[in-house]
Every structure is written in structure tokens, then in C-alpha cells.
Request: fold
Amino acid sequence: MEEQTQVLKPLLQAEVRILRMTQQELEQDVRNQLEANPALEEYDDDADIGGPDSSESDSGDLNQDTDADEKTEYSREDYDNDRINDYLPDDIPSYYDPDRTHERLIADQSSFYDLLKEQAAGFDLSEKEQRIMDYLIGSLDEDGFLRKSIRVLCDEMEIYENIQATEDEVKRVLSILQSFEPIGIGAKDLQESLIIQLHHLDRNNPLRDKAIQILTNNFDDYKNKRYQRLCPRFRMDRTTMDEIYNLVRHLNPRPGSSAATSDNTAIPVSPDFLIEETDDGFNITLCRGHIPHVKVSSAYSEFISVSSGASPAEQESARRQVSEAKLYVAAIRQRQRTMLDTMNAIVRMQPDYFRDGDRTLLRPMTQKDIADIIHRDPSTVSGVVSNKYADTPFGIIPLASLFTQSFVNQQGEEVSREAVQIKMRNLIKNENPLHPLTDDELAAKLGIARRTVTKYRKQMRIPVARLRR
Reply:
């Protein structure tokens, strides 16, 4: 039992490490592992490539008679079994459609700025911090950059919004904004945006820190491809430089480029899940994107046998590499299962929303709620939803936006703050312009306290009734 625990602990650590990775980061990580460990090999499986309908598995169907709450674990026997050689188990539905796995546009029910405000709602900001956040979001340019200095922003907020904020207060709120999706938002320029994105990559990526050093200290040389200067300065060969260039090339140079569109409604992303409504309910599949198929090399495993003729030192080295390869493949497999379990739990809690795409139908839901359902830690759920997206019948949505704050209304019902704000906005939008609704009237229609109406109205920067005439 102790030996099994010793194996499962590094397996869990490996899963946690890769769980927060985006498709792009995982693809890069898999390729790094393939290059570093000869016991891992890539293979093509054409029979397993197809659209959503090509999957023979129904385990993603929420109406199947399966226990989605069951926690998948791997025993020592599983770990030593060479059959665990594919990162994607047969019982996890997946799809590979180049037209759908390339970057697509996020659902247009929310604008670019609304999506940022939805993410801000997940933080415990004071009323003053919320006003600062709203101003910072509104000050982003079409690339998603905040090109004004902190000092200028402080002066503007005091003059135009009557917000007296210190530079430290603005910096704190800005640091929160820079953690939002798409990563790179709120930077002062392209250089800072790329560095922020690099900092969000996996720490174990061997190119990450070197790329940060180059972009921090020699951005002009990098931008102008003066590699003859960079290579000796950072003690690396041209091959490594080309790998760093390829890494940075896949970052987003304009994280707020969607703000340049006329309706501010689209953000290019790659979906991690496909959610389809069927006659019987919902079917959920994982998008594997362009992540390579990997398995433990059978030929390399045979090398560790006594009859291979290898020296004891060579056999020990090969045995270690095979062990690491099995651990890595098992960790990715566990990652995919955890992601599917989490998405199943989310859809089960939000069936009305996934049928219509109406955010007012979102039930109050926290990451702990989902963690309790799948019997995992809330940090695991956080890793699943961080920078992950779902392709739904009504567009692509960020999973993080599905988690809403809640309170109990006057009828004793638990309602989400976002649902109330949306209803309030609609009431004000359709009010009689000659007799706009007062906060008391809004409170009566919404079934909440007047002070709550006043608080939300200020957060949404909606004037009082007498100023809306």
C-alpha cells in the first residue's frame, strides 16, 4: 500500500502540473517530453481521428447510465501495465476537426468588455476597487493594452469619475486585470504582454525562462531578429533560438484584437470541449486539438530486459526513462478524465443555461460545488476551468464565466448576482423614459433589498432615476 501511494503521489503531482495547461501549452509540453525521453514515442492513429459523430463511446452523454461522480484512480498494477500507452482512453469521447479546433470566435452574447467584467465579478473587490477596475477596462485600446501611465490614470479617474485612488491601489487592481483571459490583457505594450503570457506558461518548459530574459532585456534585438547578437549574449545555439522564436510566435500579439471590431463581440480561442444537445440531453466530448498521440515505446521497454545485452547502468537508465514515460502518459490520461468529469458536473448543474445560452438562467455555482460532486479539491476544478473554453450550440464560452456569486432574495431563494444584474439592466432598458424606475421600484420588481439595487446600479455605472429622464 505504501509503495502504491509513493507511485500515485508523483502521478497526482504530474496531473496537477499539466491540468492548468491550455491546449497549446500541453502540445508544447508533450513535444518537449518526446524530445527528452526516448521511452516515449509519437504515433498516428487515423482510425481515431474524426468528427464528433465518429466516436463510438457514449460516456460523455449525460443520460447514459454511468456514474459521472466516480473518481478515476490508477493502482500500482495499472501503472506497471504497458497497456496504458495512450494519453486518451477509449472511454473518453473526443473529436478532431481542424475547422473546429483552430481558433474560433467566442460567443457573441457578451462583448469583449463584458467578458472582462464577468471575470472581475469573481474577485472580492471593494466598491472603490470595482470602480477602478471598470475604468481600467474602459481604458484598454483596440489591442487590449493599457498604454497610459499609472499616474495619468489616477489623474483621469479623479477628474472624470471623482475616484481618488493612489498609484498602489491602481497597481493592485491592474495586477488582477492582467490575470484575466485572454492572458496579456492590460499590458502597457506588446513587450509586456508577451512577457505576461510567458509567465503563465508551465514553469517546467525549458524555453520559458530564457524567452522571458530575452524579451525583458533585448526586445528590440529579438523583434528585429538580430539573432547573431542574441545567441552569444545568452549562450545558446541557433537551434535553441529558433525554438524560442517558435514559442513566442504562438503567443497572442493582440490579446484585445476583438475590441477593434465594430461590435466588440469576439475573442479568438480554441475550444477544449464540444457540448451538443441531443434528443435525450447533452453529449460532451473533449477536443484534443493538435496534441500528439504518445505511448510508451514497446521496443524501448524490451531494452530493459536481462536478455537485451545492455550493461546494468544502461538498463537502469532505460528503466528510469520507461517509468517516467508511463507516469507522464498516465498523468495526461488522468487529466483528460478529470476534465470530462468536471464538465459533466457543470452541465448537470446548469442544464437550462446550456439549452438556451441565457445567462439569466445560470444557477449560483462555485468551484467548491463542482469539487464536491467529482470528489476532488476545489484547486483541481480551478485548474480545469482556467483558460479553458467550451464550444456550445450558442457559441464558445469561457468556463470561468459560469461561476457566479450568489445571495438569498426576499423570497428565500438563492439567486446569482449576475442574473439579478442582467434582469435589472433589462428593466431599466425597457422602462418608460418619462417615468424611469426608482431604486425602490426596481427592488420590488426584483425581490431584493433596495441597498442591493443601489450597489449593483453603481457597479454597472447606471445613473439614478432622475438622471435617466
Remarks:
- The two ends are 73 Å apart (CA to CA).
- The longest strand covers residues 281-287.
- Confidence is low (pLDDT under 50) at residues 1-7, 46-92, 94-102, 258-266.
- The domain at 406-467 is CATH 1.10.10 (Arc Repressor Mutant, subunit A).
